Amino acid sequence: MFRLLRLMTVAPGHFHAALVQKRALYGIDPRTHVYAPLDADTLAHLARIAAFNNRPDQPTTWEVDLRAGADYLERFAREQPGNAVVLSGRNRPKIDLMRLAVSNCLPVIADKPWIIEHADFPKLEALFRESELREVFMWDMLTERFEITNWLVREFARDADLFGSWQTGAPNEPALQMRSVHFLKKLVNDRPLVRPWWWFDPATSGEAMADVGTHLADLSMWITAPDQPIDYATQIQMLAADRAPLVLTREQFGAVTGLGGFPDELRPYVVGRNLHYAGNNSATYTLRGVHVKLETAWEFESPAGGDTHACVARGTRATLTIRQQPGARPEIFVTATDPARHAEMVDRLRGRCDAFQRDFTGMFVSDLGTEAQVVIPDDWRASHEDHFAAVMDEFVRYFHAPRAVPPWERPNALARYYITTKAVEMARGAAPNPLHPTDY
After folding, report:
1. Which residues contact 403 (CB under 8 A, 6 or more apart)?
2. 184 touches 298 (CB < 8 A)
3. How far is it, in rounded angstroms, from Cα 351 to Cα 260?
4. Whole-structure pTM value
5. How far apart (Å, rounded) are the C-alpha atoms in residues 199 and 214?
6. Per the database record, which ranges form the Putative oxidoreductase C-terminal domain (predicted)?
7. CB of 434 closer than 8 Å to CB of 63
8. Average pLDDT, stretch 188-198?
9. pLDDT greater at residue 413 or residue 325
10. Separation of alpha carbons 330 and 326, rounded Å
11. 248/110 Cα distance (integer angstroms)
């Protein structure tokens, strides 16, 4: 029997809570419910939904039932007018909100990260056990799986004739290396993004590896072991981790928050007259014997555009590379491990791209001499914001058929949060600095 999905958004403190509603999708009731404190975060969420409804191009028709107040959690637990929960806000309490939803047999779509401290990892394990007992599923907003360059690297790496097998690599030359650079000052939905002060508190939001590093940890498994379950206890070995602050002036902080100074809650992270933001992390580990290195970096503002992503995947026959310049789109390049096999590699790559023509018409390979570029038509490019519609479409599909969720998703969710939180824990032990209250 078909059921409309009726959304209940709880404590929307991050703009991703609104982005899952940027597009109207079949099967979702246009009347949504918001349970939250009556604060600036909630008002910003309502403004984003209103902007979707009022835009001239394909406006949405959301009707918001706001149930705000100090008792919003008690009302949510008591009333429950919907049948699914959206979570994207302050990160540290998110795991407890997820537990509340699951205990009421409500499926959850929650933005990363689900946990930011390794001390909370047992909570996540317990939550998965409870969700399985109650036959309730939880879904992560893993938008980077829908970036076409990431998807193509995954497909090319599965082709033994093109890529070969994965190299083992070494800590100083990993077989898979990924780096993401994000910027504090940016546009979202064509408007300047205003960040709440708590977003800069690592005790609330987490360090960069615990937050945006979730995408990289997920991609490392999604690319190297597609559709395979990963046992974090036996198949992941953490080797090293590091951290460094992004130093922000009072003026830079004010430019992205609208505040005239640093709140008292951030005083532990103020050194001199500047805020030390927990924006740069790295993690090195082995995944089924393959050496992986992840790097997350935050900068204040890009001189030429939005966030950037880079990836190098080394196989025995070819190396797959994603390069992205600021202000440009990510592009894929393929290099033969043995230069004498360049022509053979190009032929095989063209064959693979020809096979994709049914879904990606117009894709072709440009031979650059020492490497080849996969030229992706503009029609197959989508923005980061548009990826949220694809994530929501998945959630709707599994809402109606929860037993269709691939069996590897649950163990791999545990594995990605093991990687991110363990890396932060290791980095703090290796290089203490004023980025976390426990360092004082």
Report:
1. none
2. yes
3. 58
4. 0.95
5. 16
6. 153-427
7. no
8. 87
9. 413
10. 9
11. 29
Nearest to 189 by CA among 8, 44, 380, 393: 44
Question: What span, in angstroms and rounded, lies between the C-alpha atoms of 432 and 360?
Answer: 48
Phi, psi of 403 (to 5 degrees): -75, -5
Beta bridge partner(s), residue 185: 301
Burial 309-340 (b: 16+ CB within 10 A, else e): bebbbbbebbbbbbbbeeeebbebbbbbeeee
CA distance 220 to 232: 13
Q: What's at 59, amino acid-wise?
A: P
Cα separation, 144 vs 154, in Å, equals 12
- 3-state SS assignment for residue 180: strand
The tokens describing 296, both together, are 């997350």
Q: What is the DSSP letter of 308?
A: E
Tokens of 376: 């992706």
State pLDDT tens for residues 73-103.
999 999 999 999 999 999 999 999 999 999 9
Indicate the pLDDT class of residue 109, thresholds 50, 70 and 90: very high
Question: CA geometry: angle at 377 spanning 372 and 382, to 5°?
Answer: 115
What tokens appear for 176 in the block? 């898979």
Report residue 195: phi and psi, to 5°: -95, 135
CA distance 74 to 343: 65
Residue 176 amino acid letter:
L
Tokens in use for 375?
A: 């030229």
Q: Distance (Å, rounded) from C-alpha 373 to C-alpha 368?
A: 7
Tokens of 117: 């401290």
